[in-house]
Automatic annotation (TrEMBL):
The keyword Hydrolase applies. It comes from Oryza barthii. It is found in: Secreted, Cell wall; Vacuole. This is beta-fructofuranosidase. The lineage of its organism: Eukaryota, Viridiplantae, Streptophyta, Embryophyta, Tracheophyta. GO terms for molecular function: beta-fructofuranosidase activity. Residues 1-40 are annotated as: Disordered.
């Protein structure tokens, strides 16, 4: 096989057609094996268009080229219902037919973003995972996890399927009184695979979930290698259109359309793929495997048509966002120029593009028609290079098809992150029931793949978070757990008023400490702060020693999932602030989360994560921490900064798990002005019963 031969697609216009694919023959038999397109039986059919196939054989390479040329193209068949504003019968009228060439070849092996094609799930660095799969753990022997340890890791109130692998949240939407969450799912095991389907669950309150049958499976040539990430759009008549990325039988990334088979079904149990998928192919200037994850569509008042954004990268390894216009979700025009581009940021996955304002959520289409000058637009991209979600605030000019950041120094990929820990491939949706924007994020595992297989599942979704503009700073988003999470609170204990001397630890007496919602506000001794002339101006969460380090004004905060037996080497996860003071008297606050002592196991990833968080005059150091077995989600300063960790204690579990206040500063006492610990009930999600 020629490792330099890549699948390629060229087209002059992204016109929907009954595209004929081809399979790659990797055996010594040179005979090409054509793949026959199978349409969905739920759709109405038109007479098939006239075409002919030209097969070119390469006996020495064992691949095949399949070319489709159309002399006459019939209109697309009607969808189960019409798409506003055009009826389905007229949706493609008058639009010229195009010639599409498909050249399947040998796909170059590389570390693909939906899980490396070596068969290794995205865990840590890829290289370390390969070491583990080859028979050992990076940095030591594989830890001998007991069944009790592995069972303890399963969460009580975070969303996760009953078993197997999960990654990106897909198509979240509110429909006929139900919240829907779709997600990338491998029904065959606890590792990523090339047959990813869409899992599906529904909820009345974003907390208690009912699992449903798989919404879509990879059963067509255009998505046989995976039904990948997509987004839902609510049409003016209340019905839904779902756009998603399909990975074809030649590993080309194409965009596909699906609709509910029964729009009257509030559970959206069954879905119909459009018979003439794909509706979008990669444009000539974009790689065949760099074209994925369409956004929710919005309408532009200038022409009444819809817009979607898709992420990619250019030949210079700059991340880019491109915009398409469509009147019917079937035929698309690529708008000239780029919505945005940032040098050296690589492939942009899972782009999200939406408006924010203070106080409540904003629907994108409503914002476009209202032209509210107080609205700014969030551009978010999941960076394939470093596996983090970056966002920036900016201004959107639809007439120019351009988005410009408010601060070029904090542009997408070089500035703020949604979360400084384990959080990726996130997606928001507008909730019309409560006029809020809700954010989901994939929280993957950081243990070994071997451990995932042993426990039978991998990955969580973050707690759903509301997203608003921080009007006090004007430069940040505020993320906060949806209010429904508070319904799970049970026993509550108020520890407010405790003062912790420097170099001290204070235990909190709790009944259980593995499912918690903790709210805290800390205040440093103001006299001690004034007495410090300069301290730790070069501090960095990731490189400055973590919670064990000592400075004049920090670290101080909480130790969660900490061994109650309080041994010197006991397991603990630290969530804390660290205050640095410059010679000019200016104070900088760091919000950090230290996983370095979270587990005695050495075949897991343990880091110190975090960054600077704005603390304004008159504000205390405020913190909210959600503890749910193997996940710790923390929110600082009302959600200006967040950090999520996956942790795998071996001893600080069940009754041995505890919580401590700690102050490792050398010159200042700290007082917990407010400290309320709520024990949390489980959400007891309902399994699907066939």
């Amino acid at each position: 096989m020629d490792p330099n031969s890549n699948t390629s697609i060229s087209n002059t216009r992204n016109r929907n057609s009954n595209w004929i694919g081809g399979t790659i023959n990797t055996s010594s038999d040179p005979s090409p094996i054509p793949h026959t397109t199978q349409t969905q039986t739920n759709l109405l059919f038109s007479s098939p268009p006239f075409f002919f196939l030209v097969l070119i054989l390469y006996p020495s390479r064992g691949d095949a080229t399949i070319m489709e040329t159309r002399d006459d193209v019939a209109d697309a068949s009607a969808l189960p219902y019409s798409y506003s504003p055009l009826p389905a019968g007229d949706a493609v009228a008058g639009r010229p037919a195009t010639t599409t060439m498909v050249v399947p070849g040998v796909v170059e092996m590389e570390m693909a973003s939906r899980g490396p094609e070596f068969g290794v799930s995205e865990k840590t660095s890829g290289a370390e995972e390969m070491v583990r799969l080859m028979g050992g753990a990076a940095g030591g022997e594989a830890f001998p996890w007991s069944n009790a340890m592995l069972q303890w890791q399963r969460t009580g109130f975070h969303f996760q399927p009953e078993r197997n692998w999960m990654n990106d949240p897909n198509g979240p939407v509110y429909y006929k009184g139900w919240y829907h969450l779709f997600y990338q799912y491998n029904p065959d095991g606890a590792v990523w695979g090339n047959k990813i389907a869409w899992g599906h669950a529904v909820s009345r309150d974003l907390v208690h979930w009912r699992h449903l049958p798989l919404a879509m499976v990879p059963d067509q040539w255009y998505d046989v290698n995976g039904v990948w990430t997509g987004s839902a759009t609510t049409l003016p008549d209340g019905r839904l259109a779902m756009l998603y990325t399909g990975s074809t039988n030649a590993s080309v990334q194409v965009q596909c359309l699906a609709v509910p088979s029964d729009p009257d079904d509030p559970l959206l149990t069954n879905w119909t793929k459009y018979h003439a998928n794909p509706v979008l192919y990669p444009p000539r200037t974009i790689g065949d495997r760099d074209f994925r994850d369409p956004t929710t569509a919005w309408r532009d008042p200038s022409d009444g048509d819809w817009r979607i954004v898709i992420g990619s990268k250019d030949e210079h390894h700059a991340g880019i966002a491109v915009v398409y216009r469509t009147a019917d979700f079937v035929t698309y025009d690529l708008l000239p120029g780029l919505l945005h581009r940032v040098e050296a940021t690589g492939m942009w996955e899972c782009i999200d593009f939406y408006p924010v304002a203070g106080g409540e959520g904003v629907d994108m289409t409503e914002a476009m028609y209202a032209r509210n000058k107080g609205v700014v637009h969030v551009m978010k991209a999941s960076m394939d290079d470093d596996r983090h979600d970056y966002y920036a605030l900016g201004r959107y000019d639809p007439a120019r098809n351009a988005w410009t950041p408010l601060d070029a120094a904090a542009d997408v990929g070089i500035g703020l992150r949604y979360d400084w820990g384990k959080f990726y491939a996130s997606k928001t949706f507008y909730d019309p029931a409560k006029r809020r924007r809700v954010l989901w994020g994939w929280v993957g595992e950081t243990d070994s793949e071997r451990a995932d297989v042993a426990k039978g599942w991998a990955s969580l979704q973050s707690i759903p978070r509301t997203v608003e503009l921080d009007t006090k700073t004007g430069s940040n988003l505020l993320q906060w757990p949806v209010e429904e999470v508070e319904t799970l609170r049970t026993n509550s204990t108020d520890f407010g008023g405790i003062t912790v001397d420097y170099a001290s630890v204070f235990p909190l007496n709790l009944h259980r400490a593995t499912q918690l919602d903790i709210l805290a506000e800390f205040q440093l001794d103001p006299l001690a702060v004034d007495a410090v002339l300069e301290a730790d101006v070069g501090y960095n969460c990731s490189t400055s020693g973590g919670a064990a380090g000592r400075g004049a004004l920090g670290p101080f905060g909480l130790l969660v999932l900490a061994d109650k037996r309080h041994r010197g080497d006991g397991e603990q996860t630290a969530v804390y602030f660290y205050v640095a003071k410059g010679s000019d008297g200016g104070v900088t606050t760091h919000f950090c989360q230290d996983e370095s002592r979270s587990s005695h196991a050495d075949d897991i990833v343990k880091r110190v994560v975090g960054n600077v968080v704005p603390v304004l005059d008159g504000e205390t150091f405020s913190l909210r921490v959600l503890v749910d077995h193997s996940i710790v989600e923390s929110f600082a300063q009302g959600g200006r900064s967040t950090a999520t960790s996956r942790v795998y204690p071996t001893e600080a579990i069940y009754a041995n798990a505890g919580v401590f206040l700690f102050n490792n500063a050398t010159s200042a006492r700290v007082t917990a002005k407010k400290l309320v610990v709520h024990e949390m009930d489980s959400s007891y999600n309902q399994a699907y019963m066939a």
